[in-house]
Amino acid sequence: MVCAMTTQAQVPIPRTAVVPAAGMGTRFLPATKTVPKELLPVVDTPGIELVAAEAAEAGGQRLIIVTSEGKDGVVAHFVQDLILEGKLEARGKHVMLEKVRRAPGLLKVESVVQSEPLGLGHAVGCVEDKLDDDEDAIAVLLPDDLVLPTGVLETMSKVRAKRGGSVLCAIEVKPEEVSAYGVFDVEVVPDAANPNVLKVLGMVEKPKAEDAPSLYAAAGRYVLDRKIFDALRRVKKGVGGEIQLTDAIALLIEEGHPVHVVVHRGSRHDLGNPGGYLKAAVDFALERDDYGPELRRWLVERLGLSER
Ligand code: UTP
């Protein structure tokens, strides 16, 4: 008798992963006058390649980058450069060759242009026409946010498969940090096997610590039901005249659509501001065999610490 091996069923993430990258990156001026912030390297790899790799590893099949005029380099990063590859090959630079081949080989990349920076919600709304009729959800990854270790999108997709609707990602922050984030109002799901799955009742943008409904802050990963597009069309412009993704999610909650969060218990880096970007760069560099040991030695000396 031939016995079939039982493996735990994998729930695929939505086949389309969306990366909104049309923002102005004002916190990174003057660098972002000419260099899109999504291309700033974390050690040597642009942030957008790191999130594209996360989407590919989770089973995403195509990446739609929402870009803006003048940021063509973001999409170009995913196009094969045969001339560069030829030169590296001829010079025997095989490690570098592998590195430049990685981004174009990750997954199919398409782009859509957001003509004006009208907010994250508006950026997400720009991809609707690109979806096939049978796509009932999308994954959204903000390229500013590194959520580590990777894998949270798979958990979020599993939660959607079980509970329907949309699933967001949260990280637990300290009370003194909460006012910098979008914060979830949540309740426990009685039958949840995973204590990190919570039902979302609402969301508050950047609350004072004393008004925060929880310490669970939004991290830039979303599995959104296709209904989000209809909700985005119906929300009014919010803060700064922008269409906010959180307002559309709030509308879905109000109308009774299930929205849950998965609390991610690993680490998270915010590449959207110079301070967070530097921490990410140091964190990644310390892990590298080529730069880590010397960086550690220098940091110890620079900070006047003694090596243990
Ligand atoms: P942010 O507000 O963090 O990015 O948006 P930003 O607008 O580029 O940054 P600052 O505040 O000016 O420094 C989160 C994500 O949403 C995208 C951004 O590119 C970023 O990845 N976004 C934002 C858009 O694609 N379109 C927009 O209109 C706004």
Which properties best describe this structure?
NTP_transferase_dom; globular; Spore Coat Polysaccharide Biosynthesis Protein SpsA, Chain A; 23% strand; EC 2.7.7.9; nine-stranded mixed beta sheet; 308 residues; nucleotidyltransferase; GalU_uridylyltTrfase_bac/arc; UTP--glucose-1-phosphate uridylyltransferase; alpha/beta; two-stranded antiparallel ribbon
Q: What does it look like?
A:
Helix content is 32%, strand content 23%. Helix 9 (274-286) crosses helix 10 (292-302). It is globular and about 60 Å long. It has helices spanning 47-57, 72-76, 82-90, 94-106, 120-125, 152-163, 227-234, 245-254, 274-286, 292-302; strands spanning 16-20, 41-42, 45-46, 62-67, 108-113, 137-141, 145-148, 166-172, 182-188, 197-205, 216-225, 259-263, 267-270. By secondary structure, it is α/β, with parallel strands linked by helices. The chain has one domain (16-272): Alpha-Beta Complex (Spore Coat Polysaccharide Biosynthesis Protein SpsA, Chain A). A nine-stranded mixed β-sheet has the order 5-4-1-6-11-8-12-10-9. Strands 2-3 form a two-stranded antiparallel ribbon. The structure holds uridine 5'-triphosphate. Uridine 5'-triphosphate binds next to helix 5.
CATH architecture: Alpha-Beta Complex
The domain count comes to 1
Mean pLDDT: 94
- CATH class, named Alpha Beta
Major β-sheet strand ordering: 5-4-1-6-11-8-12-10-9
Distance separating the two termini: 59 Å
Considering DSSP H and I runs of 4 or more, what fraction of the residues is helical?
Answer: 25-40%
Form type: globular
User: CATH topology, what is it called?
Assistant: Spore Coat Polysaccharide Biosynthesis Protein SpsA, Chain A
Strand percentage lies at 15-25%
Number of strands: 13
State the CATH superfamily name. Spore Coat Polysaccharide Biosynthesis Protein SpsA, Chain A
The ligands bound in this entry are: uridine 5'-triphosphate
The succession of helices and strands, N to C, reads EEEHEHHHEHEEHEEEEHHEEHH
Computed over alpha carbons, the radius of gyration is 21 Å
* Low-pLDDT segments, ≥5 res: 1-8
Give a short account of the largest sheet: 9 strands, mixed
Structural classification: alpha/beta
Specify the number of helices: 10
